[in-house]
């Protein structure tokens, strides 16, 4: 299955052929000039021939690869993934959360109309093989809402870690895949204002400080404050999403560029855009103000103060800030009127955690700092469950960690710090020094397993000692028990410490207690 | 979304309509009598009307359900599932295994032709949305082989726990789903004969004894022994699979019935069938023989002894039995010449764990014992990786636990023993006795989290004490810390043990050490 082209080149070639095919169909439909169509067809066939010459598309042959935008997680990637997810599940469990699992696909109607026009296009559909029409889940939030509505659950604190599917253009070098993990925590139920939100921020703070990825900021805003600001400048509801999308770029682009986009593409008047700038940049323009002062001074602007939505949003955020203090959430929380987040379904507080400067000392291949940007986000969405069960009102708020991004950051950090990643938990390798000791090795490794020791032996009947010691060193197995003829006669076994290469004899009848002490069993 | 019919009734109705539609199409194609076709169409329309009258199929309405053959795993099911999987992952890790994850779908060509004609029909395909043709994984073994071939991995000991997809007829009451978990452990690599198999049997034995589901038997046979027996009776290769399928029924059906099937459906002569019976029932007909004696006495049959494949199979199984002894695998292992297992790709030893009598004292709703039957199986498959990389030879053997079945058994056991299943790990509920103590509760629960205590508080500003205590009792939270005005003045907090309802005061500045001792933090 050798080929002169790399997998990604082959993929690009196929994409080109597909595009050309689409173009030709359009030309035919629009009854374009026949000569032009002929030319395009010839170009496409030439590309197809290229594929054929490479022996790739011949019947019975295929390129051995993962589907576009997906990847295998090898043992090393899984070890990193498990260490990150353990921090999250431990934290969720510490906060009393339960977990659920839902099917990887849903009835197509369940997902329909939940992700806007853009999102809807990215949903993977299953083929109609006679039966129901199904689609792959696009996130974990809509299935959670469907679960609550279907099972008539009125209150639940749950986490859910699983993969979701989006037919997006993958950028795998930057950790953007078509199949990727999400890690969600949500609190569903009718409770008093801002208490569940406070616990969400607390969890964000705990996870990020435990992950130890350097300085982070938790930005905080409120949907009603955004609604109020937009109302004051005269933007209507239909503009909400597009204006949000522009405002949300403020953490990456200068105001001038955002302002231009607001006027030229979003249809705001220059006055309205300028006004909006003075609101959403309030924090940026008043860098000395603290969280409460930002809110208080924005309330000094008469039109904002007069807007009922804005006022309610401010009051809720102020309440949330007092709860953060009681919970001892670090001073990472920062009120940020420009935080917009794309999703339509948020109804209350919204938040997003960012690592503003990236990891200290960790650069990618192009010398850019690694880890800059958003690593988690969430907010309140009170209307989603009602879309499935109109009579049920189950208010929810939650948060989602950008797991793939966190994996990428930690993998880069490990690489920069040359941290060796262990892919197994083996504590002892049982080796032999001479031939014909297989039965003895087996008996000893069987004892070790029965004592709870994580142990391995090589699957050769008569392995060379050097190969066994090398295996222990490569796999970072801390200890090797060496079975030898002479030692067996003396009723001992040799215990070797891999790192120091020190060896000492241990009596076979003291092996259990020695290992128990050494490995803290 | 109320309806007079249950979801399963609706599903049945839809299935009937679909079947009627298929029938009508066939009648039309075969140019059947027009009156008959009209009658059938009328019957189908009546059923369709029934659906319509129920308001189910009106545009914009849909039944809130999971896709056919799938289910949600609620918190309780997940708690059981996690406890079972933990036993397995702990055992796999104790044996030094790594884990990997592969995409939930594969290129269609990867799965094509790997599951025989029957299996191929059950594969879920994704819709062609422009791009590659994809199908959902059908098991974890073929993706593992694809992974090894694609990444040129020559040796690996890995486990993989994930869901797979089969468009089978679901029987959800008996734990047969279209989306279900598999739990696989495999050893890939060129090693000495039967050593990896011995570790697979050791793992089977460890997991089943830890699960504590009563007496189990690990049946053991060899593909080459089956090949030899079939050759001696004159069955040819094309009959292998169908004859295996019949022989495999011997643990559920009497020989007479299997014999009839072999003659009438599989095309064996009465003589050949009788001869085969004397081979595959050798253990059953000689109940006093032990494992080695069964093999030795079968080798006394001249035609079997003269068959090179049979002889090699016997020698390998005898070697495996000596390794089992060295590993201290319990005497659960039982040579069973009738064990056939369906899968074509096995090339060596095959094994299957069964719980022959079901769980003691655990009956299902119909009074039948729960848990009878196969709970795990596996074997050697040396040719699979080569199907992806013809030049690579990566011999493999492994095992797969029937997780859904084990879940069902343990859920039935819990129900029979009235075992309460905890769905969270909360150790302490922080409650308040009066109003206006929210900030105090928050501060204390924040302290608890920082000490590593699994703690919760209700999300009400002023909850009633009784409701909070009830929450702790319902959720089996062992301790409640009650914050009260008077107690705060005295610098204490009340610690209540949920089970005994005992209460005692603890000084706030001794809270950390008290909890640390009590909860063994």
From TrEMBL, chains A, B:
Q: Which UniProt keywords apply?
A: Aminoacyl-tRNA synthetase, ATP-binding, Cytoplasm, Ligase, Nucleotide-binding, Protein biosynthesis
Which GO CC terms are listed, alphabetically?
cytosol; mitochondrion
* Residues that hold L-histidine according to the record: 139-141, 166, 182, 186, 341, 345-346
Major enzyme class: ligase
EC numbers on record: 6.1.1.21
Catalytic activity annotated for this protein?
tRNA(His) + L-histidine + ATP = L-histidyl-tRNA(His) + AMP + diphosphate + H(+)
Q: Which GO terms describe its biological process?
A: histidyl-tRNA aminoacylation; mitochondrial translation; nematode larval development
Note the Gene3D superfamilies from the entry: Anticodon-binding domain, Bira Bifunctional Protein, Domain 2, S15/NS1, RNA-binding
Specify the Aminoacyl-transfer RNA synthetases class-II family profile domain's residue ranges.
69-410
List the Pfam families: HGTP_anticodon, tRNA-synt_His
Q: Which domain of life is it from?
A: Eukaryota
**Residue stretches making up the WHEP-TRS domain:** 9-65
Q: Which GO terms describe its molecular function?
A: ATP binding; histidine-tRNA ligase activity; RNA binding
Q: Which CDD domains match?
A: HisRS-like_core, HisRS_anticodon, WHEPGMRS_RNA
By sequence similarity, the record places it as follows: Belongs to the class-II aminoacyl-tRNA synthetase family.
Recorded hits in NCBIfam families, A to Z, give:
hisS
Annotated protein name in UniProt: histidine--tRNA ligase
Query: Which species is this UniProt entry from?
Result: Pristionchus mayeri
Q: What is the lineage of its organism?
A: Eukaryota, Metazoa, Ecdysozoa, Nematoda, Chromadorea
